[in-house]
């Protein structure tokens, strides 16, 4: 059964997003456990990477240029469009915060399932995650209508736990354990990591369902905005990297389209305003469809 799930992991992501929408009480019950799932997935993903090769990729100028496109460029574009469309302050803050968000740590696993270079995707994911603290703080300073009162102790604690914690733990394990022992352990547990990925669309979409129950038309607006954001992130990255080849362009596109909104919320919390979680929930269905779309594009594009 597990092999079947792993083989068809991409459509299963869509199914879990839809299932979370249909079972909002279960989805909202799962939500408080998602930070622990996020930490575990980030740690296991980093453990599965060759540290020296990953550090070498992180030293590439191209990876950091991508992180600027992923956050700064898209923050400016999304913020400008939101201002032009007269979004209210809470929604404008939410869309810019989504643009500031780093890539989902499940992205390398998705890229691997597509047959692309997962190490490069991991380097881009880490780079965008490291840029996130600065990007989200700038977002709060520029877009919040009220004075930002950031609890610095809590902020840096969350950064240490959710970003630097998994990186440091992975580095120490690679230093202390023989690669052969670590490799056998990862080989045994790697099929189960995909089950962790399914928890995110399932647990996050519940907040969108709550909005749908309260105001269906507003929920439809949020869904359209969320789908537009995913499309913009995906298409812009693909266009910018198309000259470097189809594989690199599609890797950049799926990395840009996948947004680790839970990590952003775990770090900034209620400072992101009331519109962020419903928008993040609305993004789960179009986001979960991006890997399926990418696999199809890989087959038809020259």
How would you describe this protein?
The chain is mainly alpha-helical and 302 residues long. It has 16 helices and no strands. The mean pLDDT is 85. Keywords: Membrane, Transmembrane, Transmembrane helix. This is Sodium Bile acid symporter family protein. The chain crosses the membrane at residues 29-49, 61-85, 91-111, 123-143, 155-177, 189-210, 222-241, 262-285.
Secondary structure layout:
Blueprint (H helix, E strand, L loop, with lengths): L1 H6 L1 H14 L1 H7 L3 H14 L3 H8 L2 H24 L4 H12 L6 H7 L4 H26 L8 H25 L2 H36 L1 H26 L4 H12 L3 H8 L7 H7 L1 H17 L2
Tell me briefly what this model is.
The chain has 302 residues and is mainly α.
Which key features would you list for this structure?
mainly alpha, 302 residues
Structural class: mainly alpha
Radius of gyration: 18 Å
Topology order in helix (H) and strand (E) letters = HHHHHHHHHHHHHHHH
Query: How is the biggest beta sheet arranged?
Result: none
Count, helices = 16
The outline comes out as globular
The tally of strands reads 0
Helix coverage percent of residues?
A: over 70%
Global mean pLDDT: 85
Rounded to the nearest angstrom, the distance between the terminal CA atoms is: 35 Å
Low-confidence stretches: none
Instruction: Please state roughly what percent of the residues sit in beta strands, choosing from under 5%, 5-15%, 15-25%, 25-35%, 35-45% or over 45%.
Output: under 5%
Oligomer kind: single chain
Organism: Marinomonas vulgaris
InterPro entries: Na+/solute_symporter_sf
Protein name: Sodium Bile acid symporter family protein
Transmembrane segments: 29-49, 61-85, 91-111, 123-143, 155-177, 189-210, 222-241, 262-285
